[in-house]
Structures are given as C-alpha cells and as structure tokens.
Amino acid sequence: MCYERNCLATDAALLLARLGVGGMMLLHGIGKLTGGIVWLEQLLQLNGMPAFLAYGVYLGEIVAPLMLIVGFAVRPAAFILLVNMVFAVGLTHADDLWLLSPQGGWMLEVQGLYMLFAVMLMLSGGGRFSVPCPACRFFGKKTCKVEDAEEDD
C-alpha cells in the first residue's frame, strides 16, 4: 500500500472518481437539455422560489460535471454539484429522506453518494491528473499540493 502524500494510486483514484461522478451527472444534464426544465420551474414556484433558479440545474448538471471530467477547478465544481444535489433532494426527494427501499437500502443512496463524492472532491481536489489550479498560478505556484500546506504535527 502507498501512504505517501503524492501517491500515483491516490491520483488515479481521484481521476476515476471525477470521471465517474462527472460522467454520470452529465447524463442527467443531457436529459434536462433534451427534455426541458419547465417542470423544474413549476416545482420551484410551488415552493416559493423564483422560476429562473431552474437554470442553475444546467450549471450543476452540465458545467460542473464537465469541469470535473476535465479536472478544471475541481473544488468549485464539486461545490456546485453539492449545491445542485441539496436542491434536488430538497425539492424532489424530501419525503424519502428517512425511508428505506423495498430491498433495504436507503431511498436516497444515489443522491447521498453524489453528495459524499462532492464533499470528498471538495476536500481532496482533482489530484495530479487535473488542470493546474488557476488560483495557485495567480499566486505564483504551479500546482496546489498537500506538501505546500503547513502541517499541524
């Protein structure tokens, strides 16, 4: 096993997580592009929110997943994905929050996994196989690495 901070296996795992989560969420976004979001606009209005917020689904299900796949600004993209999932659960799955499926699993396990992976990518970043961090370039660093941070030990 590799316990180094700059481990190739960890970077490969982050790449797989980004590709998997980004690719699967992108399919949801493509569905919204082809099927429309009128239903979402109506749902938002029924919940007392402005209909224009429905267009945020394109940010959360197309732009952010593409950013994850490419590895560009992974932490902000993961945050956008997390916000998107919080809205999805709150608007369409709130009644299922404490329910189990007939097979015994949590009714929201897929949504929960999306949120868990989003938090994981927010904490970890994109890894070595991602586009270098624009903020770090601005501050004169080539990449944001764990080694650059001060250790508390």
Could you describe the 3D structure shown?
The protein is mainly alpha-helical. It has one domain. Helix content is 60%, strand content 0%. The chain is built from 6 helices and no strands. The radius of gyration is 18 Å and the shape is globular. The protein starts with 7 loop residues before the first helix and ends in a 15-residue tail after the last helix.
Kindly state the mean pLDDT as a whole number?
A: 85
- Portion in helices: 55-70%
Regions with pLDDT < 50 over 5+ consecutive residues? 146-153
Q: What is the approximate shape?
A: globular
Number of helices: 6
Measured distance between first and last alpha carbons: 23 Å
Structural class: mainly alpha
C-alpha Rg (nearest Å): 18 Å
Query: What share of residues are in beta strands?
Result: under 5%
Q: How many structural units, i.e. domains?
A: 1
In total, how many beta strands? 0
Order of helices and strands: HHHHHH
What does the main sheet amount to?
A: none
Draw up the topology in text.
Layout: H1 8-35, H2 38-46, H3 56-70, H4 74-92, H5 109-124, H6 134-138
Helix pairs in contact: 1-3, 1-5, 3-4, 4-5
